[in-house]
């Protein structure tokens, strides 16, 4: 009898194990909701760290006389962009009718439902960090000669209208989405958009006094030496680390096997593109400049990361590295081209974000068969022209009314003393 009981128990255990092995392993709707919401939340935190990265990078590349100003501009625009995106920017982007052009001028509100698949608040938080990053691109390019408060006014327009409208054309289901344009995490929608705005600002403001010779082809280095290369390097690392949230969590889901696998694949491609961009920046600066320029290495890393952002999922790792390396090369020669035209981009934002971003968007069809070169080109042109024209008009209007550029006396004194009243670095006995 005892042996019979043991046998029955053994058979029951085997049967239970078999049934468990064959059981459905897909998580519930609530489980997917939790994981997807967590993805938005964690991604938002990582992208938020990029605000610190931009601040550190810009602070390191400006002169000692402008470091406090960069800090004020970055913390200020981070707050302004968040408020404006809440008041009307989000709905301007995501309230666009299907195939339309502009959303609604209204305040964002929470309306989470389990059927949506994620918390509305987590989505707002994640998307808000993207608009903060876009405006940050402009900050560094126009540094050391723009007044603080006019820049804040521009940040309102950029975060409330320019970025939300053009971004909504695809991510909000607008006309570019209907046309088949593809930009996974924003090589054009974020980076080229910000870069085009930066180009407009640089053109309206003009170069820093004494930055170029009369011909505009040769720069004067000594008065414009970077304040801190270690600080710039730290900023680059923070941006690089934040990119794993920027790209990886743009998968917008983490509740399935496919989504979780995609996030990690995106992380691999993103990292390798940044690494290849760094190395390419070192090589090209050594070959053409005679020195291994650390700034070109740092900007090469960022250019590689920008280039892969348009499509970080479909390339294989080797292709991702090639995209990153070419993005860095484009950045290098783009930097030299701007200098030859006498355009003073303090941190290299335009070649890093606009030039590399355009390249990354245009090569998407090489790995993603659902896209076409013609559609990608239409998307790039429309977003860049829209951002440039509105930004140029805004900067011009500010220049003609309240004033955009500091005086020559203030520029000589330094923006820290002239605009902020706080000196970043001081030597005390």
Architecture overview:
Helices cover 69% and strands 0% of the residues. It is mainly α. It has one domain: Ammonium transporter fold, CATH 1.10.3430. The termini are far apart. About 4% of the residues have low confidence.
**Could you say what the CATH topology is called?**
Ammonium transporter fold
What's the mean pLDDT score? 92
Number of helices: 15
Instruction: Examine the secondary-structure arrangement and name the CATH architecture.
Output: Orthogonal Bundle
How many domains make up the coordinates?
Answer: 1
- Please report which band the strand proportion falls in: under 5%, 5-15%, 15-25%, 25-35%, 35-45% or over 45%: under 5%
List descriptors:
Ammonium transporter fold, globular, 429 residues, 69% helix, mainly alpha, 15 helices
Give the helix/strand layout:
Blueprint: H1 2-21, H2 29-61, H3 67-94, H4 120-141, H5 148-168, H6 175-179, H7 187-205, H8 229-248, H9 257-289, H10 294-308, H11 317-340, H12 349-362, H13 373-400, H14 408-413, H15 415-420
Helix pairs in contact: 2-3, 2-4, 2-8, 3-4, 3-5, 4-5, 4-7, 5-13, 7-12, 7-13, 8-9, 8-10, 9-10, 9-11, 10-11, 10-12, 11-12, 12-13
Short description:
With 429 residues, the chain is mainly α. Helices cover 69% and strands 0% of the residues.
